[in-house]
Amino acid sequence: MAHVLMVISNGIQVKSYRTGYWSEEFHVPLNRLEEAGHKVTIASPKGGDGTVDQFSLIDEMDPKGESKEFEKLGRWKDTLRLADLSAADYDAIVFVGGHGPMFDVSYDPHAHRLINEMYDKGGIIGAECHAPSVLAFTYREDGKSIIAGKKVTAYPDAYEPKEVLEFLPYSVEQELAKVGEYISDLDTKQLAIWADSQIVTSRDPASSEAMANELLKVLK
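Given the sequence above, the corresponding structure tokens read:
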């Protein structure tokens, strides 16, 4: 079975706004992968504890309480540090979404290194929701983004809550559109798109299951 590295945010405080990873986008792929017999290791830019976006745990976002129950398991604790890792030890790397990754994961040079290492060895790279920004900021030897000219999706501007816009460092949709072919397809309930045979992106929390399904298809 495959060994998958999942990357979560350590969290960020911007003025009055605190954010991190989105719980549903963490536990849905994680549970599906482990149920299928794959091994999953958790990492973050700084190592140590990750931080969940508390908004992902409110009743409106978590009506069945699945995210709240998952967070009690502490899978966000004692994560490995990206700087200490090599893609040679994994078959795939999956970047969990949420606003948090826009601030730490997406700018992390070791995240960029691991992506390039994974791609060069023929491994699988997944990025959910806001996390595809890390792909836009990952450059190949020719100086181009790893997703240059490729079809990608991510959290659309149309979905962004107006009350948090002032705190965000950029628009994920616009950053992806600068380098790749951004697709939102808002009429589709779940959306996960392969940029090529190795890179898959998903649009939003509702697409976590779609991401899991696509990963399970290729990780045999």
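The radius of gyration is 16 Å. Try to locate this feature in the token string yourself.
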